[in-house]
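Justification of computing resources. Each target in the renewal requires a structure prediction run like the one illustrated here; the chain below, 429 residues long, is used simply to show the kind of job we budget for.
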Amino acid sequence: MEKDMQKDSGSGAPGTPGGGRLRRRRGSNEVPPEVAKVNGNHLLVHDRNKYKSMLIRMYSTVWMIGGFVFVLYMGHLYIWAMVVVIQIFMAKELFNLLRRAHEDKQLPGFRLLNWHFFFTAMLFGYGRILNQRLVNTVFQDKFLYKLVSEFIKYHMVTCYFLYIAGFMWFILTLKKKMYKYQFGQYAWTHMILIVVFTQSSFTVANIFEGIFWFLLPASLIVINDIAAYLVGFFFGRTPLIKLSPKKTWEGFIGASVTTIISAFVLANFFGRFQWLTCPRKDLSMGWLNCDPGPLFRPENYALPEWVPQWFPWREFQVLPVQLHALCLGLFASIIAPFGGFFASGFKRAFKIKDFGDSIPGHGGITDRMDCQMVMAVFAYIYHQSFVVPQSISIETILDQILMNLTFEEQRALYMKLEQIIQERLIGES
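Resulting structure tokens:
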């Protein structure tokens, strides 16, 4: 048995059962079951090896937060570019998860097909989200306006035929004895588009509704993650879920309380900057100046009479958006972590520790974005359902006119409206 083990795993080395050295593929994140440890009921703070991991993780976190703040300062387009880069890295990590070098060598160009579907989905998704803002950016230039109008008019059919071209490409590249692998890759690519790209695209929609609606949900996930890690590191004893043995009830509860309080405080702070609260109606990079709206205007609230008289504050100011922030905080602390649990189960299914190693101490980009994707979808749906006025406004009608009518049709509509208004004025006089 020992000889067999040494034969399979190379020369013997101390510290492993039977003196054999456990082999690990180069570049693989697979964790052999003999090495994997479950924390049980002892505190992680007693594990001295964890301090090194914690310092590396903190160092990477500081760099990420610094870069994130810089991108926020640069504005909406830079944030959008950051999201696109993150999406590409996530897709790359997930595409590589089921990749087999031997099969790929027999299918030249097959890997390119995955990216064809990915960028087709990107063109469709962002074309739908940003088409009106693109029109608002170029409407003063007659040539560009006409070009953009034609693109928007045929945007859906263009994306459809790009997808059909990829579909035909896939069928024509099917190779005998490779069918199972190829169809598996085809299904895997579409799952990535649905789970990763579709969900994370809601982030871009949130950005242009106002950086506030992107920054607050993203910050709450980061705060929840950091608080869960620190509370669990120092006080965690009770395992939370079998999918992720290192997560504890103490960390989960501590992070939930911290996240909800942070949501209320951060909403008040972020809500005072027009750069964060104003929506971006075009794709320019200029400074924003707008009416913040009632959500971001402070309102006075008096404490109820049953509060003891010795309490120093009888009245305080609150931004109405802070009440919405509590709902976001509740979701970020209780439901969004299930995105992380899903990712943990996914990694266990493929016997990997992390999706990648691009961020020291954290793993891959996908490891950091699992909860963010769930949160981005909720933030967009919540904003559209409970924050944006549901009644038809002049702005909404104008957006539809600019998006769907040609310049000549808009001029005809303007002349018709002018005629109707003049007739009504004459009738009233």
